[in-house]
C-alpha cells in the first residue's frame, strides 16, 4: 500500500516524492536522520530523539533549526495520515541540493523528509533472540553523529544475514564498539550491565540512555567501560538496544552460546521496564 510521506513541507504519495540528483545526501551522505518508534500512536522518547538530532546538526555545522513542537506535529500527522498504530517514523535532513562541490554552502535550504515503516509491530509481538557475528570496525570515525553514511553497516549486516545470523557487532582495537544499527551490551556473572562509554566510537543511543537510567533506578549495577569479544563469549547475558528493537536479547555470538541460549533475567527485566516506563508523547 502506498504511504503518504512528507517532503519539504508537502504531503505526497510515496510514488510522487522526489529529491534532486544534486541533493547532498545522495552525493556526499551529507545528511542526518532519526528513527522514532511509536506504539499505539505515541512516540517513544521523542524529546531525546530531537535533542540528538540537534546535536548531530551542530556537529556537522548544518544550519537547520529543530522546532521540536512543529516536528512532533509532523510526526503525529504522518502516523494519522497513514492510519498507523505501531511503527516507526524515519526523518532525514540534508544540507540541501546544489551543484556538486566538496565545499558546502550553508545558504542552501536544507532538505527535510519523513516516511513511516511498520516493522516494529513484529519486533514487539515476536521478540527475536539475536544471533550475531563479530566483524572488524569499518565505519568512519564520527560514529557519534547519526549520519546517513551507512554503507559499511549495510555491507556488514548483509554479510551477517548471508552467514545465517541476524546482525554483526563491530570490534576495533580488540574492543567491541556496537552493532551495525544498535548499541550492544553484556551482563556479567554478578548481574552487572556492562556497556561501552560514549567515547566517540559509537552512537549515543536514545534507547541505551533510557536503559541505563532504568537500570540504575531499579537495582541493576551499571559499568561503563569497553569490553572484549572474549568477555562477550563468557558473559551471562548480552543484548542490543535500539529504537526499533527496544532492548532485545543476544543469545549467540560467533557461534558461541551466551548464557543458556535464552533471554536472561536482567535483559528481561530491562526490556519490560523500558516498555513500561519509556516516556511517550
Ligand atoms: N539505528 N547504533 C547505531 C549505529 C544505530 O544505527 C542505532 C539506531 C543505534 C541505537 O540508537 P537508538 O537507541 O537511538 O535507536 C546505535 C536506527 C534504529 C536505524 O538506523 O534504523
TrEMBL record:
The keyword Acetylation is annotated on this UniProt entry: no
What's the top EC group for this one?
transferase
> Do the record's keywords include Amino-acid biosynthesis?
yes
Question: Domain of life of the organism in this record?
Answer: Bacteria
Pathway of this protein?
Answer: Amino-acid biosynthesis; L-leucine biosynthesis; L-leucine from 3-methyl-2-oxobutanoate: step 4/4; Amino-acid biosynthesis; L-isoleucine biosynthesis; L-isoleucine from 2-oxobutanoate: step 4/4; Amino-acid biosynthesis; L-valine biosynthesis; L-valine from pyruvate: step 4/4
A Gene Ontology biological process in which this protein takes part is: amino acid biosynthetic process
Question: What does the record give as cofactor?
Answer: pyridoxal 5'-phosphate
Q: What is its EC number?
A: 2.6.1.42
Q: Which reaction does it catalyse?
A: L-valine + 2-oxoglutarate = 3-methyl-2-oxobutanoate + L-glutamate; L-leucine + 2-oxoglutarate = 4-methyl-2-oxopentanoate + L-glutamate; L-isoleucine + 2-oxoglutarate = (S)-3-methyl-2-oxopentanoate + L-glutamate
Q: Transmembrane region positions?
A: none
**Entry keyword set:** Amino-acid biosynthesis, Branched-chain amino acid biosynthesis, Pyridoxal phosphate
Q: Name one GO molecular function term.
A: branched-chain-amino-acid transaminase activity
Which named protein is this? Probable branched-chain-amino-acid aminotransferase
Supply the source organism for this entry: Candidatus Tokpelaia hoelldobleri
Amino acid at each position: 500500500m502506498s504511504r503518504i510521506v512528507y517532503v519539504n513541507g508537502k504531503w505526497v504519495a510515496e510514488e510522487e516524492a522526489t529529491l534532486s540528483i544534486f541533493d547532498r545526501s545522495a552525493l556526499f551522505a551529507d545528511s542526518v536522520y532519526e528513527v522514532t518508534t511509536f506504539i499505539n500512536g505515541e512516540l517513544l522518547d521523542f524529546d531525546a530523539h530531537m535533542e540528538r538530532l540537534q546535536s548531530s546538526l551542530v556537529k556537522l555545522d548544518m544550519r537547520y533549526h529543530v522546532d521540536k513542537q512543529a516536528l512532533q506535529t509532523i510526526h503525529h500527522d504522518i502516523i494519522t495520515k497513514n492510519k498507523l498504530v505501531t511503527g516507526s517514523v524515519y526523518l532525514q535532513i540534508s544540507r540541501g541540493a546544489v551543484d556538486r562541490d566538496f565545499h558546502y554552502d550553508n545558504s542552501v535550504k536544507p532538505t527535510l523528509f519523513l516516511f513511516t515503516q511498520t516493522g516494529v509491530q513484529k519486533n514487539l509481538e515476536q521478540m527475536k533472540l539475536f544471533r550475531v557475528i563479530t566483524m572488524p570496525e569499518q565505519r568512519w570515525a564520527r560514529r557519534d553523529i547519526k549520519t546517513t553514511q551507512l554503507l559499511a553497516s549495510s555491507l556488514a549486516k548483509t554479510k551477517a544475514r548471508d552467514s545465517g545470523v541476524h546482525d554483526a557487532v563491530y570490534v576495533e582495537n580488540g574492543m567491541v564498539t556496537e552493532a551495525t544499527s544498535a548499541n550492544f551490551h553484556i551482563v556479567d556473572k554478578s548481574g552487572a550491565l556492562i556497556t561501552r562509554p560514549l567515547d566517540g566510537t559509537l552512537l549515543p543511543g536514545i534507547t541505551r540512555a533510557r536503559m541505563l537510567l532504568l537500570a540504575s533506578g531499579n537495582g541493576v549495577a551499571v559499568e561503563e567501560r569497553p569490553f572484549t569479544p572474549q568477555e562477550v563469549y563468557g558473559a551471562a547475558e548480552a543484548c542490543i538496544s535500539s529504537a526499533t528493537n527496544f532492548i532485545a536479547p543476544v543469545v549467540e555470538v560467533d557461534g558461541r552460546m551466551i548464557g543458556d541460549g535464552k533471554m536472561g533475567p536482567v535483559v528481561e527485566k530491562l526490556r519490560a521496564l523500558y516498555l513500561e516506563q519509556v516516556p511517550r508523547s
